[in-house]
Specification:
Blueprint (H helix, E strand, L loop, with lengths): L9 E2 L12 H9 L7 E3 L2 E5 H10 L10
Length: about 70
């Protein structure tokens, strides 16, 4: 499993680490279209748990040699 993000941290869309996915607007579009990593909504605030982001990245892993994770 890919471990780029800290499993015990909640990331906000504005955090610099989230730039790996592009802009804050792109993350908002993904949420609207039910794409991207799982997220937490508390009122109007959005958070991404590190384990959910790592799972999302692992699911999209491609091995050019044909060997999966």
């Amino acid at each position: 499993m890919v471990k780029i993000f800290d499993d015990d941290r909640i990331y906000s869309p504005e955090d610099p680490e989230m730039r790996i996915f592009g802009s804050v607007e792109k993350l908002a579009q993904w949420r609207y279209h039910k794409r991207g990593p799982a997220f937490i909504r508390i009122g109007r605030r959005i958070g991404y748990h590190g384990t959910d982001i790592n799972a999302f990245l692992t699911a999209r892993r491609t091995d050019p040699n044909g060997e999966d994770t």
